[in-house]
Design brief:
72% of the residues lie in helices and 0% in strands. By secondary structure, it is an all-alpha fold. The longest helix is centred in the first third of the chain and has 23 residues. It is globular, with a radius of gyration of 15 Å. The relative contact order is 0.16.
Length: 140
């Protein structure tokens, strides 16, 4: 029976969220744009926005760690499958409309869906190396 390695899942969630933020800085020129939006929309400030943003990243990593053995494909592909489904269902169809950005964030521009998916794919890279740490032994 597979169990979640909580330490690795939490570490992967933090590392992935940091990568998402760094990649967002490169794409938009803004640091912590997502925490700023979360803090402003809730009225709870930047501290809450950062905590919610990184907490969400950890939660997604824990969810991935729990279902990864059930996903289709090789270990290196599973994080990308998971995060693509998560981005479409939870970001494009839930979060963006909730924030007033429309389905897939299209009210913000035609490139928003592409940019959000790309950022989330970068977010999932640590899942390969931290949660699926035995990947390279399986390839050999």
């Amino acid at each position: 029976m597979n169990t979640i390695n909580w330490k690795n899942a939490i570490l992967a969630g933090i590392a992935g969220t940091l990568l998402l933020d760094l990649f967002g800085l490169v794409m938009t020129g803004q640091w912590w744009d997502i925490p700023a939006i979360l803090g402003a929309k809730t009225g709870l400030g930047m501290g809450y926005g950062v905590a919610a943003h990184y907490g969400n990243g950890i939660l997604l990593a824990v969810l991935y760690a729990g279902i990864a053995p059930s996903l289709w494909g090789p270990n290196w592909l599973r994080p990308f499958i998971f995060i693509t489904a998560q981005t479409v269902a939870l970001v494009w169809l839930f979060m963006f409309p909730l924030l007033g950005a429309g389905v897939a964030g299209l009210n913000l521009g035609a490139m928003t869906p592409f940019g959000s998916l790309l950022r989330h794919l970068v977010f999932s890279i640590p899942f390969i190396f931290i949660i699926n740490k035995n990947l390279f032994e399986r390839i050999r």
